Amino acid sequence: MRRITANLAPRFTAWLSATAGLLMLAVAVLASPVHAVNADAFIREVGTETLQALGDRSLDQKKREAVVRKLLTEHLDMEAVGRFCLGRYSRSLNETQQKEYIGLFQDYLVKVYSALLSQYNGETLTVQDGTREIEGAQLVSSQILRPSGPPIRVEWKLVDKSGEHKVTDVVVEGVSMAFTQRQQFESVIQNNGGRVQALFDAMKKQISR
Fold it and tell me: Domain range for residue 107?
């Protein structure tokens, strides 16, 4: 049996850091309930307002983590995204393990996104009018304009749940964040004899950093 990976997702977190300005907007679109607002208008308005707030450098690590936790738990489809990221292994979990996994998944996302919040560097957002339907979800197209470097093409995948938009994925230059995370989780499990507990242990280690 192979040793548990010490760092849960070095390649994944490196990829996230490379598009840190973009990922600030992934948090931004989670910042407010929708209530009959079109998906494109929602991302445009909330994203712009939140980018302005990100200029506040007074937030320390604990405050950033508290803000991100509130946004994610209220406006990300946490269970659906969590199940997708675990892939076929989600079917092997009993009820107790499912609850533990969702808790760990939430804590892991909070850790990753709160770290990225500190890297905002003046990016701005432009959103294309209208949406496209895909697999029961709405897809909103946008670009992240950076102070230096070419624009980054971003698509936001949202579903309607009880009249509110819930974010289920962010696609960066054709690369799905959810699918990338799924590959990383599956790699940790496969490299440790197919044991899901190995992933849990690795997530706990990452969260405690």
Answer: 10-207
Render the burial of 100-126: b for 16+ CB within 10 Å, e for the rest: bbbebbbbbbbbbbbbbbeebeebbbe
Q: For the chain, how many residues are written?
A: 209
How far apart, in Å, do the first and last CA atoms of the chain sit? 25
Number of domains in the chain: 1
Is 82 in contact with 101 (CB distance < 8 Å)? yes
Mean pLDDT over residues 14-31, rounded?
44
Beta bridge partners of 166: 159
Q: What is the pLDDT of residues 24-69, one digit of tens each?
A: 445 444 444 444 468 888 777 666 655 655 556 677 778 777 877 8
> In 3-state terms, what secondary structure has residue 91?
helix
In a domain, 174, yes or no: yes
Nearest CA among 126, 29, 41 for reference residue 76: 29
Q: What is the spatial distance between Cα 140 and Cα 158, in angstroms, rounded to a whole number?
A: 8
